[in-house]
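Below: protein 1.
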Amino acid sequence: MPEPLGMGQLKGTSFAPSREKRGRENRIRRRRRGAGPGSGAAGMSSSTTSGQGQGDDAPDLVCVADCVHGMVDALSCVRWNKHQGAVVELSEHGIVVTVEESGCLQAKVYLKTELFAEYDYGAEGRPRFGLSLGLLVDCLNMFTVPGFASPVEIRYPGPDMQLLLRSVGSPDACIHAEIRTRIPDTVAWDYHFEHAGNTPVTFTVKSAILKESIDDLEWPGSSIQIHFHPDPPSVIFKGEGHGDLEIEFSYYANTDLLIAFQCDQELSYRYKYKFLRATTSNVPSSALKENRGSKVTIGRGGMLKIQHLVSVARLGTQSYHNFAGGAQQPSRIAFIEFFVKPEEDD
């Protein structure tokens, strides 16, 4: 199995004739404002390299992201170690990137078709492939320039089953990157999340506060207990180490801090600190400062689900969304979900 490799190079732009359109039943195309026929993004994204034909030889996916800054932020949220593999799944609904560790922590990034200026999908079924998450983020960073958003075409598969990236915003030059893919590792578990009771046990808190609270609970080798109280409505995070440290979120005391709360039973579960910390440690400051709400839910058996939202809006535009409402451009939001298994009692 080949190891993931990548390369980027600057070269003159060269486009081959556009491939013929396939049957409507096997493709979906999404266009957003500014990507109409004849425009730079749409015209370039329909090009193909020489040697690629039509029908079965055509790519499974050709899509154009008008700005990859938000995509880099979303993928960075689930990057908690340097040599981290990921499984990418393609469908007519968008792209899902899944990572996991030790069978106890899993994260998924959902990139819906609406996030792309163009989304041309022609595969049968849902293709899946593995790659290096760090390499994918590093390659996408090649296309990010402060204050400038260059459309990027994403194509899969290439002639040797690579994931191909290239800039399509300049008529003079093109940045091109190839990422070698591999047969995807089997996902050890794909938990079907179920609520613990008839009423979901959940609360929504400002993302920055949640991150700060978890960071403050660090003790060497410790576990974190999360305790839900229905009356009075509150959530307590408790860390144990050389001493005890508790952080309490009281719903009635500060509704600006605890944005929403729902619980009809008292619950308490413990989680390994390193897994709990991974759910917030890499959320970019650009996502935290907009005061988005992170939603925390405990499901059946103590499975913990933490959801974040990251803006994938065009550079220079403002897009804000939280779980309590106040949405603007909701289709320009990437969804990130973490699942953490509880510690088993001795």
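Below: protein 2.
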Amino acid sequence: MSGLMSGVVVQPRWLVSRPSSSSVNSSSHSNNGRFKIKMAVTSVDEKKKAYTLQKSEEAFNKAKELMPGGVNSPVRAFKSVGGQPIVFDSVKGSRMLDIDGNEYIDYVGSWGPAIIGHADDKVLSALAETMKKGTSFGAPCLLENVLAEMVISAVPSIEMVRFVNSGTEACMGVLRLARAFTGKEKVIKFEGCYHGHADPFLVKAGSGVATLGLPDSPGVPKAATSETLTSPYNDISTVEKLFEANKGSIAAIILEPVVGNAGFIPPTPDFLKALRQITKDNGALLIFDEVMTGFRLSYGGAQEYFGITPDLTTLGKVIGGGLPVGAYGGRRDIMEMVAPSGPMYQAGTLSGNPLAMTAGIHTLKRLQEPGSYDYLDKITSELIQGIVDAGKKAGHAICGGYIRGMFGFFFTDGPVYNFEDAKKSDTAKFGRFYRGMLEEGVYLAPSQFEAGFTSLAHTSEDIQQTIAAAEKVFRTI
């Protein structure tokens, strides 16, 4: 486990410590060893380009006539941070370029998949070769076997896996499977944890729902959520009470082992261990939604990092290398309930398509290289320590934390143990900070209630430039 675990996870505190000198040398990963990235640093004598989003504004105004809110996913509309949403043109490495020509250091990473950097040359080359054979078969392909073997060998809980096309689809499938296997219908989820937009999960779901300040969602029948029980995250006593009040009827507990959809919130000591025990004692299944944390906190995900093995796991993002993908897997006896092996039906035309499998295979190969997770640990530590220090120095209430390539910070003194704590954040101040960072060439998640992500393509220069930008913006908000 990471030497920084004591600063973020084991101890319930948020001001993290710097890594030891034994951390991997950043030069070994500079620019990911694959491509050169144009740095957005101007010389002293060079006049800084005026920041404008005119073309983005024109494109977004047109988009609002074509798509609900002008977007295909709500948080992209910038409702919680204000200002003009950005329309992007291209990505490479740690950088994104918008249609106005502005360049940004990216800490969203397509919401997690870009762990080796955007548009990696080897991944693109492999995709080009695969595309020559076709983009979708709607039938078995050998690449499914290859990626399945890689996932099974990496993730402790997975003995069999089923590929789907998104994290939402994976969570839909795993919930149905848990109910089918146990013969029970109730499920416990945690406030602020997001498991996709399927009806049963839109109960205190955090993420985009919280960002927009909406009720969980109209259009969801009461019957769809009547069997969904909720508890605050990091609160085992409430979980125990739920089991006591619903004896013999709870199929599963599902959670993000590290919350990423209410901001970055790690588990307190023994929380995951207690959940593992209470599910065993009550004949329920423990499900880790590792769509964000899978292959990001460690090669075996959060379950390897924390040493807690669930019964079932959902995956996405990283295992598709930037292409649409999802997966659910777990113990063989449970997974054999899935059709056609068993009676629990789930299907998908594009599931296991050759392009997503190819991108996933080559992304995971890159993560297997020695030092990958040490490097993520090093740069993310420097980033979050720098941002928190700069904020405190400027007199702001701020706390933050990280694990490997995942991080977050809140405009509150903290610590933050659950969604209620997160909601104490000064979201108006976050919006001002966010817009200021955009003008300084830094792209963060456009919501206080979303985690951020680093990649192997981020350099020490990227981190220092980001911290310098934060110092400047903190002085103005």
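The chain is about 35% helix and 15% strand.
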